[in-house]
């Protein structure tokens, strides 16, 4: 238990790494199910605003660099590994900042979940697709770009980082 909790009750690095692994496993399990049950490009509507799909993204968020010549695969793998190393360093440097550590752990888990896809398949498997009418001027048909659990974890982590900073500024004299 000492690996998971530091002196003073702060969560230890092992706890944060276990949480990141949980994100990676959940992400990979859902992607494996999608790969087994869907053909590439298949869409299964579940609600007027939500579909399950199978999309392969060779780029990053919003298909950024998807049309590059292939170098982006290795760039994003290296970037994910380097950022994860930096995140581990930050967690070790700021163990008392629980919301901050949670936020960067979510980002690391999501980034590494997508790194696993890039290494295994050469692309990231996306499967969650939302449609909102107000998005039609920006996205064709109002469909927000498809995403996955790893992307959701990264988004949650980013939102928590913003919240952590707002709370930190509020506490400052």
Question: What this model shows, in words?
Answer:
With 173 residues, the chain is mostly helical. 55% of the residues lie in helices and 12% in strands.
Question: Which labels suit this protein?
Answer:
mainly alpha; 4 helices; 3-stranded antiparallel beta sheet; single chain; 173 residues
Cα end-to-end separation? 36 Å
Numbering strands along the chain, what is their spatial order in the largest sheet?
1-2-3
Low-confidence stretches: none
How many strands in all?
3
Specify the helix fraction band: 40-55%
Strand content: 5-15%
Outline type = globular
The pLDDT mean sits at: 87
Q: What is the helix tally?
A: 4
Structural class: mainly alpha
Q: Give me the strand/helix succession.
A: HEEHHEH
Rg from Cα: 18 Å
Largest sheet: 3 strands, antiparallel
Brief overview:
This protein is mainly alpha-helical.
Question: Any chance you could write out the topology, listing elements then pairs?
Answer:
Blueprint: H1 13-37, E1 43-47, E2 50-57, H2 71-93, H3 98-121, E3 124-130, H4 149-171
Antiparallel strand pairs: 1-2, 2-3
Helix pairs in contact: 1-3, 2-3, 3-4
